[in-house]
Write a structure and sequence with these properties.
about 190 residues, alpha+beta, Immunoglobulin-like, four-stranded antiparallel sheet, three-stranded antiparallel sheet, 2 helices
Length: about 190
């Protein structure tokens, strides 16, 4: 990663060698090192990581674990966000933020809705750096999401998810930390 303005820095080094040396050796290095360590870029967006290789969903009763297999080269700071929906379009998806874990602890989901109908759950995971767009989603089931049903007795009408990160409330799915830098508050 490079910061623009090298020609200006060269001019400063010619006019004031000590200041130029300080800026090049310490300030520029500090900016670039901090950005690299934080998985951001001081002047643009970091390239999104490759999508996870696969997603495995394990269930027992109403207990669920989502394991992410990600064999691509990644930088420290990568995060995994799983979107869980009751439809393959992922509208109103609930968000399970793994943080850096590819094999987080288990969680529970209800088997049935309030009327006793069995939920079908769909899972998709994205990888994202703090300074990047999300990767393309990787679906449980491969190229197309595959439904998972549970075997318990809990009945619950799920509240639709409102999104994640800077996504519009309820209007965007599979965006991880968000695609926009800022989401404006409601007026």
């Amino acid at each position: 990663m490079a910061i623009a303005g090298n020609d200006l820095l060269s001019q400063i080094e010619n006019e004031n060698p000590k200041l130029g040396q300080y800026l090049r050796q310490y300030v520029l290095t500090a900016i670039q090192t901090t950005a690299r360590n934080a998985a951001v870029d001081p002047s643009s967006t970091v390239q999104a990581p490759e999508p996870p290789s696969s997603v495995k969903v394990s269930t027992a009763g109403e207990t669920v674990q989502v394991n992410v297999n990600h064999t691509s080269t990644v930088q420290r700071g990568v995060q995994y966000i799983t979107h869980i929906a009751t439809n393959p379009q992922f509208s109103g998806a609930m968000i399970h933020d793994h943080g850096c874990s590819r094999a987080p602890v288990t969680f529970t989901l209800p088997t049935k809705d309030g009327s006793g109908n069995t939920h079908s759950y769909y899972f998709a995971t994205v990888a994202q750096y703090p300074g990047s767009q999300p990767s393309a989603p990787t679906y449980y089931g491969g190229a197309q999401p595959t439904a998972v049903t549970l075997s318990g007795s809990t009945q619950l009408d799920l509240t639709l998810g409102t999104g994640s990160g800077t996504a519009e409330n309820g209007g965007q799915a599979l965006v991880g930390l968000g695609k926009a830098q800022v989401r404006l508050g409601a007026s």
